[in-house]
Design a protein that fits this description.
The complex is a heterodimer. Chain A contains no helices and 11 strands. In chain A, 0% of the residues lie in helices and 55% in strands. In chain A, strands 2, 4, 5, 6, 9, 10 and 11 form a 7-stranded mixed β-sheet that branches. In chain A, strands 1-3-8-7 form a 4-stranded antiparallel β-sheet, with no helix packed on it. Chain A is mainly β. Chain B is mainly β. Chain B has no helices and 11 strands. In chain B, the strands form 2 sheets. In chain B, strands 2, 4, 5, 9, 10 and 11 form a 6-stranded mixed β-sheet that branches. Chain B has a 5-stranded antiparallel β-sheet with strand order 1-3-8-7-6, with no helix packed on it. Classes of the chains: A mainly beta, B mainly beta. Chains A and B meet through strand 9 and strand 10 of A and strand 4, strand 5, strand 9 and strand 10 of B.
């Protein structure tokens, strides 16, 4: 248990469905991230939230929509996805200290998404 | 743009061997370098964090070193065990940026 919890662990959705992934951290961190992990590729950064403000959107298609209502919760809303969006989606958190230096990042167990 | 490379992509060793995993990065202006372990279908477990002012970190049988000037980090695993079998990922971040990952080294330790 890393202190970062993701739900659901597995999700199968059709291309016309709308679903949401949830991430919650109990570490007192102020930065949260979404990463995508596809087979044979490095982890790809999708979104970064720092103090609840989105600070990075790594050219992610609009069918992925993040939401960060507070510094402990992060959502990824999904709609009209494609089969190539099937992947492991990982959430992480870390703490910004003085001087804008990120500290050790902790990851959740991920959501295995299959788009059919 | 920072790029992180890990060599080898896969490694098989017999139990008890000492081994070294390599990580290189293109931009030496990093703040942190972090090593992770990932078991199949699972999330990432943080192993070691090396801050830019540090040269190495140790945890049990693991030792990670950092040479910013040459753009390299190594993860040394002593007396490997079958339970060490997993994918090992290194990641680097620069000022205010999120971690950038390599593709990982998949380690298999046979008994």
């Amino acid at each position: 248990e890393t202190g970062v919890t993701q739900t659901p662990r597995h999700l199968v959705m059709g291309m016309t469905n709308k679903k949401s992934l949830k991430c919650e951290q109990h570490l007192g961190h102020n930065a949260m991230y979404w990463y995508k992990q596809s087979a044979k590729k490095p982890l790809e950064l999708m979104f970064v939230y720092n103090f609840k403000e989105q600070t990075e959107n790594n050219s992610v298609p609009s069918r992925f929509s993040p939401e960060c209502p507070n510094s402990s919760h992060l959502f990824l809303h999904l709609h009209t996805l494609q089969p190539e969006d099937s992947a492991l989606y990982l959430c992480a958190s870390s703490r910004h200290s003085h001087g804008d230096v990120l500290t050790e990042a902790f990851f959740g167990q991920g959501t295995r998404l299959t788009v059919v | 743009k920072q790029e992180v490379t890990q060599i080898p992509a896969a490694l098989s060793v017999p139990e008890g061997e000492n081994l070294v995993l390599n990580c290189s990065f293109t931009d030496s202006a990093i703040y942190n370098l972090q090593w992770f372990r990932q078991d199949p279908g699972k999330g990432l477990t943080s192993l070691l964090l090396i801050q830019s002012s540090q040269r190495e970190q140790t945890s049990g049988r693991l030792n990670a070193s950092l040479d910013k000037s040459s753009g390299r980090s190594t993860l040394y695993i002593a007396a490997s065990q079958p339970g060490d079998s997993a994918t090992y990922l290194c990641a680097a971040n620069q000022a205010g940026t999120a971690l950038i990952f390599g593709k990982g080294t998949t380690l298999s330790v046979s008994s």
